[in-house]
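Saturday, quiet lab. Running sequence design on the structure tokens for the scaffold JK sent over.
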């Protein structure tokens, strides 16, 4: 019923009117975006699904990298900074 995160690259679970979601999309323009507005109609089931994937479901955006949960906007900033420091 719900879309699972991609096993390659970034996947962002996002919703409308979310400033952190918009900032995260700017950082990751090539990410796979999953709009959760429709999912929130059955919020309890959606939260159970997210809990099964990430062991959390408290705030948007929820970002996955290569299928693994990394966090939200702040964690994306840290992940990208770490990658840039490797060069």
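Result came back. Writing it out in full:
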């Amino acid at each position: 019923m719900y879309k699972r995160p991609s096993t390659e690259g970034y996947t962002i679970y996002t919703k409308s009117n979310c400033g952190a979601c918009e900032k995260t999309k700017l950082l990751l323009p090539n990410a796979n975006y999953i709009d959760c507005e429709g999912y929130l109609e059955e919020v309890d089931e959606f939260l159970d699904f997210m809990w099964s994937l990430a062991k959390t479901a408290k705030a948007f955006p929820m970002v996955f990298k290569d299928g693994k949960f990394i966090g939200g906007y702040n964690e994306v900033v840290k992940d990208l900074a770490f990658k840039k420091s490797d060069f």
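Notes for JK: The mean pLDDT is 90. The chain is about 40% helix and 20% strand. Ask whether to fix the surface positions before the next round.
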